Amino acid sequence: MISKLPNTTTSIFSIMSQLAADHHAINLAQGFPGFESDSVLIDLVNKAMKDGYNQYAPMPGDKKLREVISKKIESLYHKKYQADREITITAGATQAIFTAIAATIHKDDEVLLFTPAYDCYKPSVELFGGKTVEIQLEAPDYQPNWEKVSEKITPKTKMIIINTPHNPSGMLFAEADMLQLQKIAEENDLLVLSDEVYEHIVFDDAEHQSAAKFPQLAKRTFITASFGKTFHNTGWKMGYCAAPEYLMKEFQKVHQFNVFSVNHPVQKALATYLQNEANYTSLPSFYQEKRDFFLEAIKDSRFKFTPSKGTYFQLLDFSEISDERDIDFADRLTREHKIATIPTSVFNKDNQDFKQLRVCFAKTEEELKKAAAILNGI
Ligand code: PMP
Ligand code: GLN
Asked: What is the pTM of this model?
């Protein structure tokens, strides 16, 4: 057999974005900002190109950028990652996740995963002969049940993947969750992959609980992050991984041969831009305003929702509107009502359908208004 991923299909993000384009629909499906990245940052990229940073960056990434990331993590989460040995700049969080998995998952290893789960974890594990063991989070609060997690652990369990703030539910892990995770990971000698791409997008004065804040957890954890989410430029595909030296050593063995190094001028620009804390500390209020504006605009619609606590996604329950499968309903909304959303069954254990669509509210007020007018009429 040629295929190593016989059960994997085209990502729902490609499918829905193409469908939105084909039908001239508002695209609230794939998660990307509908507005420009800061012109200051764009100017810094231009400057870096003019200054001659157009050849390969160092394999782990620009030194200054790694130093600034190290300082940022230390000031936010009080954990020092050595810039020269414990941080690697990657082509988005996707490459960081793939590389962490490629570097550590062997044939027949089991990897625990909370579903609904972002779509890149499972195929990455399977590609290296691992098996995901899925634990379904339940609406409306999607909080993890740690007893269930313990029950799923076997001698083959190698890693647990978490994602907070959580895509697609907008749920956050509390400090108590991280302490439970730390305990379970230590007791069972598990690696942890903590996908924190939305670390700066948390609402209602909540605090992001980074794995970096928990010393015994950080010792066994790969943290992945995405500049695309933080600085509104998902198309630049820029992110990083932070992990203790013994894990980063293995990570870099793979990184150097699947990409070697990533976009040099963008790294130079980020090294300067990231030094201004306001460029990320402003995000919670920026996105909370968008969430509140959007939810106020659709409060009288027939969709039901619990406000998102983080990320730029909102789940909408359509069980009072239709009993179609979510995939069919989302397809019909795109074709007939000109609004594209993500059917969440594709993220669930066994593709269970809970009649939930995911929408992205990282859009201009004008676009959100238009989207709300459509949703109110469904
Ligand atoms: N993890 C999660 C939870 C995401 O939502 C995304 C992007 N949608 C990624 C990882 C990938 O990030 P990037 O675009 O930086 O590769
Ligand atoms: N992370 C984005 C989302 O959840 C999409 C990323 C992608 O298209 N692969 O919508």
From this structure: 0.98
